[in-house]
Structures are given as C-alpha cells and as structure tokens.
From TrEMBL:
Domain of life of the native organism: Bacteria
Domain Alpha-D-phosphohexomutase C-terminal: 383-456
InterPro entries: A-D-PHexomutase_a/b/a-I (IPR005844), A-D-PHexomutase_a/b/a-I/II/III (IPR016055), A-D-PHexomutase_a/b/a-II (IPR005845), A-D-PHexomutase_a/b/a-III (IPR005846), A-D-PHexomutase_C (IPR005843), A-D-PHexomutase_C_sf (IPR036900), Alpha-D-phosphohexomutase_SF (IPR005841)
Gene Ontology MF terms: intramolecular phosphotransferase activity; metal ion binding
Family designation: Belongs to the phosphohexose mutase family.
Domain Alpha-D-phosphohexomutase alpha/beta/alpha: from-to ranges: 6-132, 160-259, 269-378
NCBIfam families given in the database record: PRK09542.1
Record GO biological process: carbohydrate metabolic process
UniProt keywords, alphabetically: Isomerase, Magnesium, Metal-binding, Phosphoprotein
UniProt keyword Metal-binding, yes or no: yes
Annotated protein name in UniProt: Phosphomannomutase
Keyword set includes Transcription: no
Pfam families, A to Z: PGM_PMM_I, PGM_PMM_II, PGM_PMM_III, PGM_PMM_IV
Organism: Streptomyces rubellomurinus (strain ATCC 31215)
Length: 461
C-alpha cells in the first residue's frame, strides 16, 4: 500500500506536482472525498497555479463518478471557496498550495458550511481510502461504484462573495483612501478589483497579473522580504496603507502609511474591538473572541477592557474553528494573519479583516500608525525557527532553565509556554520538520531581547 503521509498533512493535501501527486491521484481524492463525507453535491475551485485546472477537473470527475453533482466555480481565492461552501451549503474543495513555490499544489477540504476537514475530521480516512486503491507500482485504480454519475456544472460566485463581505462592514461613509495592494501574482489580483469596486478608494495595484510561477516574489507576506516592494510603494505614492495577500488570498498583511508592517496581533485587536462593538450593539452582552497562544498579550487585554471574553487556543485553524463553534465566538485571530468570523461561517478571510481596517481608518482623520498604536503594547520577537536534532530534549532543557524562576507560570497547551509578570515565551515543535519555533514577548524591548537570546542559546546548545 502506498504511504501518502508526506502528501496528506494535518489540515490539507500539499505536495510537488507531478513527483508526489498527479491527476490520477487527484481523481482518487475526489472519489474518496465523496465516499467519506457522503456528499451528494460538492463545490470546487482553484487558484492560478499552472497545474490547478487539470487537477481540479480530475477531482471533479472522481467525485462525479461516485455520484456527486459538482459545482465548479473556477478561479477563486480560498475564502471565496468558503463563501461558496457556506452559501450553497455544500462540502468544498479548494486547489491551492497557498504560499508554496510554483511546483507545489494541494487541496483544502471542507464540509458543508465551510466546516474544516482535518486529520481528525475525515482527512485520515480519505488518505487511507486512496492508499487502499493504490497498487505496488503506485498506479491508482478507483473502484467503479454502482451509482448514477453526478453532473458537472459551472457557477459564478465572485460578485456574491464581494457583496456578502461588503454587507458585513459599513464602508459607505469612509473618507477617500489611497491603498496600495500587493497581490503577489496570486488570487488577490482576482478578488480585490471586484470587492473594492465602487468604494472611495484610490487603488494602487501591484502584481495583480495571475501567474502561478510567482515572477516577482514569493506570495508569502509572512516573510519580511516579500513585503519590501509594498513598503517602498506605500512610501513612494503616499498611500494611507498597504495590503499584501498570500497566494490563495486567505491571509492579509497590513503596512501603515510609513511603510511599517502592522503586526497581525494589532490587527486582531483592532478587528476584535469592532466586532465586539457590533455584537454588543445587537444585544450580545459579553461576546467571545478567540486568539491563539502566540498572539500578543495585547489581544486578551483589549478584549477584557471592552467587556468581552477572550479564549486562548492552540495554533491552527481546526482548533480555532472548533473553539468558535463551542463558544459561539464572534471573531478569532492568529499571529499568522488568519482571521475568522462568525458571520463568515467561522471561516478565515483576510479580505474581511482588510475591510475592517479600511472602515476603521476611513472613519476618522488620523493615520493608521496612530490608530494601531494602542494595540502595540509589547515588544515581540516574531517567530524564530531553530533546527534541532532532538526537539523533546531541547524543550526539556529550556523548561529546566526557565520554569523554576520566581514568579513564573508554565503551561503546555501547545508546546511550552513560560510566563513572567511582564513577559512570556512559547517554544513549539514543528509537526513536519526538525524545528523548534520560538516566540517571545515582553513589555520592555531589552527584556524581550534578553529572553530571546537566552532561550535560543539553550535551544541551540
């Protein structure tokens, strides 16, 4: 039996085409998805990668062969696929490898209403089924199923997606804004023109041409080097702010009028404040906000100050979405610029977060840097990766060095978190690589640097 564990990750399918997977395997994933979910109809979409159309078509054919009607929405962002899954109440498949290089592709799967499919919610079963259909020579043979084949149809969803988002944020009264947007040749170049159409915004587009070979820079704004062009453009044209989307445009990063990046934690706090106010105005006495354990302490502080309840979770969209469902949270944010909204089927959409930023900035006369200053209360290291031979031994050494210090607390919700009166750090092992990921935050920049350097010294021996 073929082992697909390197291809099927914790939350999605992701690998090199055609070395790790191809159309025959994609066809099998389509059939297995229908078999495991019991779906009678699904919706599929894809990004701009050269391999995406053929892989998507094969998946659709596999799903149809197992009796599901397939609604094909074509080119779309991942959150546009989530919109279609929510609006049509259908399970969905999005073909994308997000910010990975051009030779990669993948599938993000969801159940009806954009509910996530991960290892514990069906993805492992799908993998095992596809493995069972794979021969010793890696040839994939999907067994025929005695059902009436499903139909393949096409549907346009971009305008509906844009209208849905614009219905959740009032931008009618904002002042005119100049906004530079770096789409990184990804799906932001597809969605932004429609979403921004008719708004009082002077759009300065960068790399809007859909090109899955990413000729200008990687479509990964989490890496500072990929923000350099946007920062320069904001300063050059005197923009009020800059927005950068990743390859499948489900994450959005923000740059202020000085060309300085605004941390995703500050954006989480800003959007949380707006969503709390909206929920309270609708009669919700104490709304809940989700944040993962690597977001700044600023986030729970702001949430409590506004009379709402913060809930801390592990890193990862499946944990965020699960906790949102349990608590009926109005909003959730992660340090990686994933933003989740109850009114968007608890799914993540960077575009809706961007619209909140535009509404907040355009609703007053000050600059974005001034607006976000109150949400920037701590000095943060950002995520620092270290390659280690033994993750557990390195983590144990850090625990021994820091956990016993006076006034500290320790938890292991996700990796090792050690907190003092005005500082904390988290050390987490990567699930897929021999890495430890360190995040440090402190009230004082000097303390942050001292902690960062001290923990790294222990980790790296």
């Amino acid at each position: 039996m073929r082992d697909l564990k390197q291809l099927v990750k914790a939350y999605d399918v992701r690998g090199v085409v055609p070395d790790q997977w191809d159309e025959s395997l994609s066809r099998a994933f389509g059939a297995a998805f229908v078999q495991v979910t019991g779906a009678t109809a699904i919706v599929v979409g894809h990004d701009m990668r050269p391999s995406s159309p053929a892989l998507t078509r094969a998946f659709a054919e596999g799903a149809a062969a197992y009796g599901a009607d397939v609604v094909q929405i074509g080119l779309c962002s991942t959150d546009q696929l989530y919109y279609a899954s929510g609006k049509l109440d259908l399970p969905g498949a999005m073909f994308t490898a997000s910010h990975n290089p051009a030779q990669y592709n993948g599938i993000k799967l969801c159940r009806a209403g954009a509910a996530p499919v991960g290892q514990d919610t069906g993805l492992a079963e799908i993998r095992e089924l596809v493995e069972s259909w794979t021969g010793e020579d890696d040839t994939v043979t999907v067994p025929a199923k005695d059902v009436k084949a499903g139909t393949l149809s096409e549907q346009e969803t971009l305008r509906g997606y844009a209208d849905h988002l614009l219905g959740l944020v009032d931008l009618t009264a904002i002042r005119p804004l100049k906004v530079a947007v770096d789409a990184g040749n990804g799906m932001g170049g597809h969605t932004v023109p429609t979403v921004f159409d008719g708004l009082p915004i002077e759009l300065v587009p960068m790399y809007f041409e859909l090109d899955g070979t990413f000729p200008n820079h990687e479509a990964n704004p989490l890496d500072p080097k990929n923000l350099v062009d946007l920062q320069a453009k904001v300063r050059e044209v005197g923009a009020d702010l800059g927005l950068a989307f990743d390859g499948d445009a489900d994450r959005c990063f923000v740059v202020d009028e000085r060309g300085e990046p605004v941390s995703p934690s500050a954006i989480t706090a800003l959007v949380a404040a707006r969503e709390i106010a909206r929920a309270q105005a609708a009669g919700e006495a104490e709304p809940t906000i989700i944040h993962n354990l690597i977001t700044s302490w600023t986030v729970p502080e702001v949430v409590r100050e506004l009379g709402a309840t913060p809930v801390r979770t592990r890193v990862g969209h499946s944990f965020i979405k699960q906790e949102m469902a349990v608590t009926d949270a109005v909003f959730g944010g992660e340090h990686s610029a994933h933003y989740y909204f109850r009114d968007f089927w608890r799914a993540d959409t960077g575009m809706l977060a961007a619209l909140h930023v535009l509404a907040a900035l355009g609703g007053q006369e000050g600059t974005l840097s001034a607006l976000t200053a109150e949400y920037d209360r701590y000095a943060a290291s950002g995520e620092i990766n270290s390659t280690v031979a033994d993750q557990a031994a390195s983590t144990a050494a850090v625990r021994a060095a820091y956990a016993g210090l006076e006034g500290t607390s320790v938890d292991e919700l996700d990796g090792l978190t050690v907190a003092g009166p005005d500082w904390w750090f988290n050390l987490r092992a990567s699930n897929t690589e021999p890495l430890l990921r360190l995040n440090v935050e402190a009230k004082d920049p000097a303390k942050m640097a001292e902690l960062r350097d001290g923990v790294l010294a222990v980790v790296r021996g």
